[in-house]
Each structure stands twice: as structure tokens, then as C-alpha cells.
Amino acid sequence: MPYVVTENCIRCLYMDCVSVCPVDCFRAGEAMLVIHPDECIDCGVCEPACPVEAIRPDDDKEGMRWLAFNARFAEEWPRICEKGTPPADADDWRGRPGKSATVFGAAAP
Fold first, then answer.
1. What is the mean pLDDT of the chain?
2. pLDDT > 70: percent of the chain
3. 3-state secondary structure of 16
4. Percent of the chain with pLDDT over 90
5. Residue 103 pLDDT class (50, 70, 90 cuts)
6. Helix ranges, the chain (H)
7. Burial 44-67 (b: 16+ CB within 10 A, else e)
8. Of 22, 24, 26, 10, which Cα lies nearest the Cα of 89?
9. What pLDDT, on a 0 to 100 scale, did the predictor assign at position 107?
10. How far apart are CA 84 and CA 99, in angstroms?
């Protein structure tokens, strides 16, 4: 049961989760992070570290929707091993519904 990153991460990118991941399974895109499902060891330390509750187990309703998205982009986006600086407008995007369709269009779950 890997964990996945969901819509709440889009345009927030606080990256607290990256700091606690023991296996560096996060990948960074321009607008959000994803978790490589084949590298995640299901330890769960990233879930409570996320300040926007964007990380879910892949077996809950929201996690299931985002599993294929995480798997697809984890193969394309570069690995991130250290917390970076969130975008200046991250707080403006926090909790906003419908971000995935706005940012990713047809690629969104």
C-alpha cells in the first residue's frame, strides 16, 4: 500500500514530506510532488508531515484516484531529496478545490 500525493499539493509544494522520507521516493513537478509507488515503503511518515493533508494511502477513495497519476509522473519527474522553497503564492492555493483540472486539464484524475 504505497502513499500517493493528491490535489491538495498542487501549487502549494511545502515539501515537509520530502524531509522525512527515508527512501527518497518523491518526485517534483512544476506544480506538485508525486510519490513513486514502487519505491514507497509504506512507512507513513510523510502523511502527517504534510501541512495541507495532500498525502493519502493508495487504498482510500482519494488515494485510489491519484495512484495512476503518481505512477505516471514519478517516471518522468526528477527525484527530490531535500525540502525546497515553496512558491511565494502557496498559501493562496492552500485548500482551493478543483486545482487539478485547472493545472493539469485532461491529465488530472
1. 93
2. 97
3. helix
4. 86
5. confident
6. 16-20, 46-49, 61-74, 90-93, 99-104
7. eebeebbebebbbbbeeebbebbb
8. 10
9. 61
10. 21
Do residues 19 and 83 lie in contact, with contact meaning Cβ atoms separated by under 8 Å? yes
pTM of the full predicted structure?
A: 0.93
Spatial distance between the Cα atoms of 109 and 105, rounded to a whole number of angstroms: 9
Give me 88's grid cell: 511565494
Enter the DSSP assignment of 87. P
| Other C-beta atoms lying within 10 Å of the C-beta of residue 78 | 9
How far apart CA 9 and CA 32 sit, in angstroms, is 6
d(CA 5, CA 109): 12
Q: Please say whether the beta carbons of 13 and 86 come within 8 A.
A: yes
